[in-house]
Amino acid sequence: MVACTVLFAGVFFFVGCRGFGGGGGGDNTTTPPPTDYPAIHNQIMVSTIRACISLEVEFYNTNFLGQKTGSVLTKQGSGAIIYQGRYSDTNNPYYLALTNDHVVRSEPGYSNRAIKAIDYKGNEYTAFLDVAVYSYDLATIYFTKTAELGIIQRATTNPTIGQEIISIGRPNGQHNAVTYGIVQKYQVADMADRTNLPFPSMFHTAPITSGSSGGPVLDLQLRLVAINHAGTNSDGLKLHGTSCAIPIQKVNEFLNAYVWS
């Protein structure tokens, strides 16, 4: 097992486009065309980024007048919009987004929670918890649609080992940082600060750090293939660190069992 720590607060950097594949073969080997990283990054900045959100979750107590009292705990995280629906009572549209359970779950000693979603332009929305499941470390939140954002399409199968992937998140308050990497392996992560997930995480090399929890991991077709949830040390991952994500088959399993049902 690999020791990991959850990432719900924290900074980041952009890692430039780079190749991860092998070189050419012999006379009888066809070399695949190189990946057009600038084109992929441009597409992310034009369209995919519209479906990525940053989260600020505040935990606090109030007195009998409703005023905040005592200390306030704030967590930072990331999320991915996956659905647009309409409220049954008003017919007004809303967005549904995925994030981690550990980003939004209530903290002991606090009676109130406020979730703020921030879009790619810095617009802020009051969000509400829909479903949170500890054993998946996944949650869904929703907020009223007041601007045209995007929706990330979900893949149906987990990426293969060696496949190139892209991570988007909010490390240390930097909105929508983009990094590239490959899938290393699938393995149960030995969590240093909470209960292990009962299924293998997807380990990948796209750097993430605190604040990236709940952010999307995409394939080169910009489909959701995992949700980031942990890294290998409490200070965040460095350039050559390992990142942990919840693979898409488990994400879809969670959605089918707890959200769409």
Helix/strand layout:
Layout: E1 2-6, H1 37-46, E2 52-62, E3 68-86, E4 93-99, H2 101-104, E5 112-118, E6 124-133, E7 138-144, E8 164-169, E9 177-187, E10 189-191, E11 201-204, E12 216-218, E13 224-231, E14 243-247, H3 248-259
Parallel strand pairs: 1-10
Antiparallel strand pairs: 1-13, 2-3, 2-5, 3-4, 4-7, 5-6, 6-7, 8-9, 8-12, 9-11, 11-14, 12-13, 13-14
Written account of the structure:
The radius of gyration is 19 Å and the shape is globular. It has 261 residues and is mostly beta strands. Helices cover 10% and strands 41% of the residues. The protein has 2 domains: 2-17 and 153-259, Trypsin-like serine proteases (Thrombin, subunit H, Beta Barrel), CATH 2.40.10; 52-144, Trypsin-like serine proteases (Thrombin, subunit H), CATH 2.40.10.10. It has a 6-stranded antiparallel β-barrel with strand order 8-9-11-14-13-12. A 6-stranded antiparallel barrel has the order 2-3-4-7-6-5. The chain contains 3 helices and 14 strands. Strand 3 (68-86) and strand 4 (93-99) form a beta hairpin. It has helices at residues 37-46, 101-104, 248-259, and strands at 2-6, 52-62, 68-86, 93-99, 112-118, 124-133, 138-144, 164-169, 177-187, 189-191, 201-204, 216-218, 224-231, 243-247.
